[in-house]
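ok so heres the complex, two chains, lmk if somethin looks off
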Amino acid sequence: MKKYFILTGLIFVMLFANKSQAQCGDGLFDICHSKLDDARFLKSWAIQLENQRSGEPLPQVSFKMPLTSGNTYKIFACNAEELPGKVIISIRNQNDDLVVTSYMVEQRRHIPVIMFPVGMSGIYTFSFYFEDGKEGCAVGVVSSVN
Amino acid sequence: MPLKLKGLNFVRKKHKIQPQLTDTNAQNFRTMKKERLLILSIAMFFSYAITSCQQGQRQEATDLLSDSLVASDVRLDDRMVGEMISSIPNPVEMSSLLQKSGVVYSQELLNPVNNVNNYNTNFKRALNLGVYGTDLVYMNIYDRTVATLRYLSNVRDLASDLRVEQFFDYETLNRLSESARSIDSVLFITNSGFDRMSRYLIDQGRSNIAVLISYGTWIESLYIATNVQTVPPNRDLINIRIGEQKKVLDNMLLLLHTYRRDPNFVGLIEDLMELKAEFDKVTISYVYAEPTMKEIDGMIVVVDNSRSEVNISEEIVQAIADKVSYIRGKIIG
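and the predicted structre for the whole thing:
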């Protein structure tokens, strides 16, 4: 009887593994895209990172994107609720200088939206990681404000 | 009679269920029920596993372009390709700039609708999916919503040939295209569709196709920008935007170089190297300064104190335009 439970369990795990992935991915995109308001969608990324392991660097993922001077960009991210990690966005210019981050370290506070009127055209690096290196799933969106 | 199936022995038995079972019969029945359940579970497991494998095989086997890359070491760089591909600008920005600058809409700049029938290879289809995608964005920005329907159909056909049509909601796009008031919705569906498609292709190990689509997108965007009729001072601003593509070109070359073992990609790299020779005449200077930040209504507003300055002459723009026209002609031809 034990064998049947294991087999049935295995089948359920396989079936639900796919569903939970969809929940973290596509569903979250729809939720996050609905927060664009009047901004024009440009780019979005899926971010899914595991817990930080002791002695290892903070897990993060980075993407490059060109931003143009004279344009204002609205940048934000949405967290999947089923995982504990709260996403942090940091943007660096092509000189690798930190321009802005969505997390106020001293106040331990997350800022939901970054408005970035760009003065210097170039390829910027968008890095995403989760507060305290917790496991998390999020979607990051870059849009332009007319 | 024992039935042998790939090393597994099954015993075929006949059962008759009596209204009242004896202890022995009941025990036999329970045993047989368990066996059936076991066989059913194993069958479900194998059918799930086989279906998953078949899905994966179908995607790779029918895409010759993808097959040509499986044996190379390129697939190792898929993650990096995913990170880099975002550095190719979205055509929305260039088209928006043209529209804001008062540039007149020009249908003859776009890839003719009927050309779609000439694209018989996945290589050409991927490139021109990017081209038609950019044309679609350009038309939408200029409110040519009704005229977009045939371009939309081309995007659908090419995406279908490449087996990525699931990322575009054509029915909604068709419906929205009938109303000029829905431009932002049309742009969003088109844009996010391309975005998801690119992500999917990379996840599926078909990043080469994603790169080709991006290449087609970028070249078409550059072609439109270098060929529109404008007058100063709008021309100056557009020229600056063209000059800024110097950085994008470097990233595009890096992406294409990943697939240098494919002869099709070698041709693209050679074309871009010629274009690079013209872009190398553009100078861009940067002044870096510490940004400042303000918090307004719960948002961070960055005050960017850095500046960039692009130095590009009309002659350089013309040389770039000629080269881009040549490359674009090869793509759409």
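quick notes: Helices of chain A lie at 2-33. thats all i got rn
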